[in-house]
């Protein structure tokens, strides 16, 4: 229970940073997506089920903070990203940064493409390559740079949470 509360508090901190601080440090109106970094990192470190649940909650909270035409779309997209990043749980190595960076890049690309479809393509704007070049790729690069910084913090937090879980299980036996 304590682990879940700490993860939820971390998620709220990430959401507040995403909605308040990151727009202030945007470059050319592009902000990094910390919620994808959180979802991918913890999905990768904790497995499919945790990735799915954390992704859904991240998306739902983001939907509540940033209202859009399709409420629940971010919840679905983040849930999808968290679940599929959890698939790599078995090939995950703690200190290897390549897997989280690749999964974050893929997740951010999928996120950007789905939002292109719902925000622009459905309204008749069909210039996909312009959107990829001007919005998706810069956001993906910015998010990858954020992943390199934040992944270590999330890794340390996850290691402490796992130690707490092992200690609490050991106290019951």
Automatic annotation (TrEMBL):
Protein name: Rod shape-determining protein MreD
Superkingdom assignment: Bacteria
GO BP terms in the entry: regulation of cell shape
Keywords noted in UniProt: Cell membrane, Cell shape, Membrane, Transmembrane, Transmembrane helix
GO cellular component: a single term: plasma membrane
InterPro entries from the UniProt entry: Cell_shape_determin_MreD_prd, Cell_shape_determining_MreD
Compartmental location: Cell membrane
Sequence intervals crossing the membrane: 75-93, 99-122, 134-154
Organism listed in the record: Marvinbryantia formatexigens DSM 14469
Family classification: Belongs to the MreD family.
Membrane-topology descriptor: Multi-pass membrane protein
Cell membrane keyword on record: yes
Alphabetical list of Pfam families matching this protein: MreD (PF04093)
Main location: membrane
Xref: Gene3D superfamilies: 1.10.1760.20
